[in-house]
Amino acid sequence: MRFVLVWIFVLITPLALFAQRDTFDSLLDRSITSRYIRLDSAWYFLNQAEKIRNEYFPKDPILLGKLENQSGTLYYVNGDYPSSLRHFSNAIAILKDQNSKKDYVYALNGRALIYLSQHEYENSIKVLDECIKINQELQDSVGLGKNYFNKGISESELGNYEEAMISLKTGLNFLSNYPDEPLVPMIINRQAKVYFEMGDFSKSEQTYQQVLNEYPKISNWELTFAYAGLAEIECERKNYTSAIEYGKLALNYAERVDALWDKERASAILSTAYEKAGAYQQALVFSRINKSYSDSLYNQNKNSEISFLQLQLSDAENEVLKQEQESAQNELRLNRKYLILLLIALAVTISGLILYSRLLVKKNKFAEQLKVKQEEIEAKNEKLTSINEEKNKLFSILSHDLKGPVTSIKQLLELSKAGFFKGEEERKSVQDLLTNQVNQTHQLLEELLDWSHAQLDGIITKPIEVNLVETIQKQLNHLSYQAMAKSLSFKFDPPISPVFAMADPQQLKIILQNCLQNAIKFSKPEGQISIQLSEEKNNVLLSVKDQGVGISPEKLDEINNKMVKVQSSPGTHKEKGTGLGLLLVREFIEKNEGSLEIKSELDEGTEILISLPKSKTT
Length: 618
Hints:
alpha+beta, five-stranded mixed sheet, 7 strands, extended
């Protein structure tokens, strides 16, 4: 009886494992099918497949590689490129030496997508060409379709539109026998985008409509891409009503699939369309929405850059380990030869010594190579730390310098909404003031974004000759509403001749803006803010003096003696601050080889004295 039970167990166990393997494959297929429709469903099926693998096939590397590939794909669809990169890299490491070329080339294709997201399009094309060779060996038409699709995207981003169109058409040809493949409408959508970039709006519109009309079951991802593309076309044609309708559809589908890049694209189109149509309030609403998505994308891209550097660091570490292993193997082989030669005869002793000396030379060479690699790793670690610190500082500068103008706009809109402005002439005056403030804020945002983009690898000071009178006057105009809101006046009697200093223009604007905003913040109503400009032999002197509440001796000592952010005090109208302003002023003045002095007495006001190098040409 016991013998029979054992045989039953032996027969049933393989059948149960086959059933579990079928269940694993079915769950993975359902996850793949759902990834462009409902991302949460795709994650659910993937997690269920992972549970089966962990319970029944814990030592199967190919199944683990498949799970890593699908995880990388889902993170990529969601716009989480750092996590996507990590999983595709895991899959490459797992599948490289396994007999599963199809899964390995899938992981390589994922690596190419990450290169594409990092704007390293040439590297992306190189990896995709490697994928194409492998898929040609496998005769995998769907895989080749994916490879040529991604290659077409990289070529279009490089501006090679004719080559991109050839790659996209090649991808469609490989998928001609697979009309239900989700990749087909994706390729057609990308063709429409390329036509748009080439300026052929009619062909672009026709191609987008082909996606919408011929593929009724396409994913939300492709729907938002197509509708956003149609909205872009209508904007170019100045049909802003149609552009708004398409833009709303695009944003709706983007929110369903929770694709951050698509939400940013759709909200930007809506903001532009409403602005061109004259609906400034709606334009402002979508501008704020777009700003939120842009900030998230910016942070995500920085995280993606950091993860990419971390991957390179990991590759370097693996290379070091590989060289260490090779060194150890070489040493072992040479030692074996030396022992054998000693056993054969004393006559070969001299040869053994020569071989040993060569070994020492090789060991020293390997040691030097390892040292170089270690130094490279340390340099990359320092770069990662620097990128994180500078990223945080750039975020602080952007938020700090935009807070004041945006608050002014908000106050005007709230007063207007409350009916505070009665007469038509008064409302027109307020509308002009609001338009001017929005334009100035938009200009400030553009300048800050351009400057911050140039500072991504670290805040760099580039002094040039700057007209101080012109720069001060622009900042006074920019802050005129904030001063008017507290019944303050600016007193600035510029010299007859222009005054030039050597300074980084954007950093100088941040210095002036923070000094003037502090003066407004701590001034009493009906007060006056005095700005004076004078020249010495080698320096230019700038004074910003208010008649406000002043600074206590203890607080002044803390400001003058600490190169850290101090606790901000509320303004005379309870304005809040971050404590970052004076820290930025001091840091940027020092970067521009200037000096800062603060004089203040309680209830008497505060004077900020700034000295900057004088232009050598004046």
